[in-house]
Fold this protein.
Amino acid sequence: MPNQTTPLGSRPPRTLLCAGLAIGIAFFALTGCANRRADRGDKSVGATNAGLQALIGDDEAPTIADLPPDDFETTRRRIEESAALLEQALAESSTRVARTPDGPAYTRHGERAHDDQPAITEIDPMHGDDPEPGEATRFSLLDEIGDQSADPTAPPPDVGGLAEGTTPVDPAKDAASPASDPEQRKQQLVEELVGVLVSLARSGDAPGSAALALAGLETLRPQALEELKAEGLLSDAEIASLDAARQMFDALRADGGIADPSRISEVLERIRQDLVARAGLRIVRAELCTRVLGYGRYETFESNRFIAGQPIQVIIYTEVDGYTHRETTGPDGEPRYEVELSQRLELYHIADDLNTWNRAAESDKTVSRNRVRDYYLINQVTLPRNLTIGKYHLKVVMRDLVGGSMAEAIIPIEVVASTRANARP
């Protein structure tokens, strides 16, 4: 049978009756003792220590038998005051009782009470915490005394913070579980992280950062990027960059370790060439020169200012990058690499954007046993002497005849009168 606890709200009348009965018995007992000992004469005593004050203090209270007859009225008055204080304390505690409107009730031992019993909450008598509104309360001095039969030196039981119905985990079994295996745990974490990154790439406006993290995870979980590629969430340029990053990560691995620098260098060079080819043709540098000796070895004019009425002879030096190689086979059966570019020149008068001079496209073809790394073109031209005074733009137009891409560059030119001191003949 579960232990049921009666709310304090139903106890005050019975408690007050018992308290009053005890006070009455004490009163009559004291009265009889005082009458029998009234003839013993006066005795010198200190201040009376009776009632609740005797219970609280450390001094030993004198008994009624030791008191003189004249102090009996004082003793009785203090007993009445103590009874009044006790009654007031019980009345105040009864006002703190409230019934729980909803939810099941539980006894102080954790057992569920009947449906007609309200929920009870214990209040610490030393701290006097107020209960929550609508919560039943019980105040008990027995809680402070505790179970005297228990061993005071025994440690409290360890419940381990387990919720009701939770089975404790056996450490021995947990150590042998598959989740404790480092390799399986790694795979589990990788799968979880891949799922999170894919969700971020789908929900975000810029999926690039999540896709880059997935490219790194492909060393642990291949084909992690394929799902995003199939859904069309990435542009062609983003896919090219991610493929390069994936190749770099793959190159770093070598039989479970890290590859040597020479191997990584080869892979990085191939990645660079692929990225350059994907980016398309690019004019790295275009200059008007007086002399060209080779790649990166040239001399330019002090300024691109020329005298009107005279022919203008220049060498146009152009460095390009991002061209495409055509792979062929030579007469000896060995592979060959071809680069074929064309260059067209156009001169525009800036004031009216008039095309005043052109040079038809000329192609240049290079064949090598290796991929060409440094590519440059030189084109010696003579600009017409009838150019009017003003500023011009010399446009250099390059086209990759293998890959189909195109690039442009502008070289500024100024034509001045012959009276200018800083002009060259």
